[in-house]
């Protein structure tokens, strides 16, 4: 009896087994087949018993698995592509998918290379050229191109590019140097000290939009999306605006909102906005922290400061918020407090000698600063702690009087003043976060501070959208600088 092998998909192991057993079945005439010639393994015998058809498993298309062009993916071994023409390797004519042709460019040739578990098109450019935006461009342009400064795709936002490095740019004039600006990475909120007006301006610079009048003796600014909030510390010389929270909704060239009274005898010291912009957290002097709805313009007490344990004279003037926690400082007692949103509990995050009233937070860590002998040290600690958690990690140390602390994506930044009198100056410095490019091992001595700007005294600091923002105390100009 002869054996006929039928192929309808890739060869599977049961074919090998059946092929080996088939001769024994045909020669012995054992009971592996029924009297009517139907093999017990599901095969089909011819009427005269001279042939046996041994079935294989159905092709993968029967189970719904197919290649990008609808052909059976089971016919090819990865990473080959199952195309109409058969099994094809990934190349510039079929890169990652059947028929996906990689485009070329003047001065270069298309490539197809493995990328993130698949294949992606690229460009191999000639000498003195680099692939950028689907073209081969002269690398010399990276020295002056503000959209590709130093490398392809690195934008200076609002600054120029000189020798492959982004330069600071003027965002707005007449910024109030007593209050730090705020940014959400798209726009910047600030106070004009000359007319007590709150403004919002694009991070890259442009025409400021007036959003809040009567911001007398401003003490804090916050912005998140369409929400822009301002708090004031006023002694009553302008009735109706003293010690208030002004909540605004900003869209394009219009703004609307309301003034929310927070207590005439308790000046507001600081304000931060929740990550979704729905709630403002306002710190009141010597009393408590309020949670104020951006929609209803109403406030309720969140944390009563005077009720905290181990607190004698409490001065809270540093606020930071993440998705899950609100952080604030007790600089008198050196305590950093953590309040779990939305309803507590209140716990101590850490203690530190020489704690300064500056905080910043990202999705995982909270950042704080201490002062010892004129040296300012910035630390990072987990927002949630456990017995197995590492303690605070040193990020950088600088010499000067701290005026701001901010974090954005890959870097933590500080602003400070140096010297005194006519020799007073200032700087902005940054340190890469652990795990990012250029970062030192925080557990082995901390990151190294790199100067981003040095010049006039610097007041306040904000970070977002890949940039830092500060106010020049001398000129009252508000400037931005691209972070690496």
Helix content: under 10%
Dominant shape: globular
Corresponding CATH superfamily of the largest domain: TolB, C-terminal domain
Figure out the total of helices. Answer: 1
Low confidence ranges: 1-73, 307-316, 441-445
Average pLDDT over all residues = 80
CATH class of the largest domain: Mainly Beta
Our Rg estimate from Cα atoms comes to 34 Å
Report strand %: over 45%
Q: Based on the structure given, which CATH architecture of the largest domain is correct?
A: 6 Propeller
Domain module tally: 3
Strand order of the largest sheet: 12-39-38-37
Q: What is the CATH topology assignment of the largest domain? A: Neuraminidase
Q: Report how far the terminal alpha carbons are from each other.
A: 77 Å
Largest sheet composition: 4 strands, antiparallel
């Amino acid at each position: 009896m002869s054996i006929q092998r039928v192929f309808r998909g890739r060869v599977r192991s049961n074919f090998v087994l059946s092929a080996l057993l088939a001769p024994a079945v045909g020669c012995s005439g054992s009971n592996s087949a029924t009297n009517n010639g139907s093999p017990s393994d599901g095969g089909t015998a011819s009427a005269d018993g001279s042939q046996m058809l041994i079935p294989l498993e159905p092709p993968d298309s029967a189970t719904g698995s197919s290649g990008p062009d609808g052909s059976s993916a089971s016919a090819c071994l990865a990473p080959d592509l199952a195309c109409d023409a058969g099994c094809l390797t990934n190349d510039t004519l079929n890169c990652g998918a059947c028929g996906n042709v990689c485009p070329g460019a003047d001065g270069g040739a298309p490539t197809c290379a493995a990328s993130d578990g698949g294949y992606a098109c690229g460009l191999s450019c000639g000498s003195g050229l680099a692939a950028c935006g689907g073209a081969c461009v002269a690398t010399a342009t990276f020295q002056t191109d503000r959209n590709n400064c130093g490398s392809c795709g690195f934008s200076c936002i609002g600054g120029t590019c000189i020798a492959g490095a982004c330069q600071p740019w003027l965002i707005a004039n007449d910024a109030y140097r007593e209050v730090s600006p705020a940014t959400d990475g798209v726009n910047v909120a600030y106070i004009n000290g000359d007319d007590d007006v709150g403004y919002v301006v694009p991070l890259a610079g442009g025409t400021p939009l007036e959003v809040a009048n009567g911001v007398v003796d401003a003490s804090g600014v916050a912005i998140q999306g369409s929400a822009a909030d301002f708090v004031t510390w006023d002694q009553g010389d302008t009735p109706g605006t003293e010690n208030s929270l002004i909540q605004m909704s900003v869209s394009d060239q219009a703004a609307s909102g309301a003034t929310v009274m927070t207590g005439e005898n308790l000046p507001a010291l600081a304000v931060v906005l929740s990550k979704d912009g729905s709630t403002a957290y306002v710190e009141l002097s010597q009393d408590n922290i309020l949670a104020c709805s951006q929609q209803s313009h109403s406030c309720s007490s969140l944390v009563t400061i005077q009720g905290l344990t181990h607190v004698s004279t409490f001065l809270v003037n540093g606020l930071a918020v993440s998705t899950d926690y609100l952080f604030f400082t007790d600089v008198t007692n050196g305590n950093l407090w953590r309040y779990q949103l939305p309803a507590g509990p209140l716990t101590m995050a850490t203690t530190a000698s020489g704690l300064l009233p500056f905080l910043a937070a990202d999705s995982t860590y909270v950042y704080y600063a201490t002062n010892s002998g004129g040296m300012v040290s910035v630390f990072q600690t987990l927002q949630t702690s456990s017995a197995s958690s590492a303690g605070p990690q040193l990020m950088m140390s600088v010499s000067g009087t701290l005026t701001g602390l901010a974090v954005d994506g890959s870097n933590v930044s500080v602003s400070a003043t140096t010297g005194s009198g006519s020799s007073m100056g200032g700087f902005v410095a940054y340190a890469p976060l652990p795990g990012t490019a250029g970062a030192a091992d925080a557990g082995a001595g901390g990151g190294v501070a790199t100067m981003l700007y040095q010049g006039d005294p610097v007041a306040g600091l904000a970070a977002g959208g890949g940039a830092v923002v500060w106010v020049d105390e001398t000129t009252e100009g508000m400037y931005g600088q691209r972070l690496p």
